[in-house]
Specification:
Elements (H helix, E strand, L loop, with lengths): L8 H12 L3 H6 L1 H26 L34 E6 L10 E6 L4 E7 L4 H13 L1 H9 L1 H6 L1 E3 L17 H4 L4 E7 L1 H4 L4 H22 L5
Antiparallel strand pairs: 1-2, 2-3, 3-5, 4-5
Amino acid sequence: MSETGHFTPATFDFLRELAANNDRVWFQANRQRWERDVRDPAVRFITDFAPRLAGISKRFRADPRPVGGSLFRIHRDTRFSKDKRPYKTHAGIQFRHDDGRDVHAPGYYLHIEPGSVFVGVGIWHPDGPTTRRIRDAIVDKPAAWRRLRNDERFGARFELAGDSLQRPPVGYAKDHPLIEDLKRKDFIGVCTLAEHDVTSRAFVEEFTDICRAGTPLVRYLCRALAVPF
């Protein structure tokens, strides 16, 4: 494990400057800073978190490859977006389930951005069939969902978050006692942090504890989708 911590104030300095200079010329001139202050610390963090993640579940992957691994690429996909800025102004790290084909599977996530640092657990923007399976699980076994929502350790760290439908989803009773949860389009818990939390030497341990606290939601979603935890 790193003796000085993984991320530093320089990580946030680079991301702030990138937000103010989001163009290829500036990025190429500052690529070494990106590698030194953001990419390489993230790779070391992923490497050091791997055995800790295995202690939570062996079904999730901490992949330290700088390309194609747990660290999201810095380049934005601008093909279908009116926003043509080429770079993301945050670092995103996801620890995916073995059975997850993409980011829409249960997982653990770390978001590092000036003014927005958080840990996320669960599933963000699942596709239609996946969403229906989760909603059906809530309807079929409402007590299990309530236990998750009332879990003290989960609630001490996380808030359920994400987008929701304006109206009840088709095929579900409008007066269902859990209708607000059935209206969810995301099934995620969010734990908000400060920049100094991430730059702490002990952050990899703190992140591990946070992920453990978020595990009831991840385990619930795995069961709902019939994938092993």
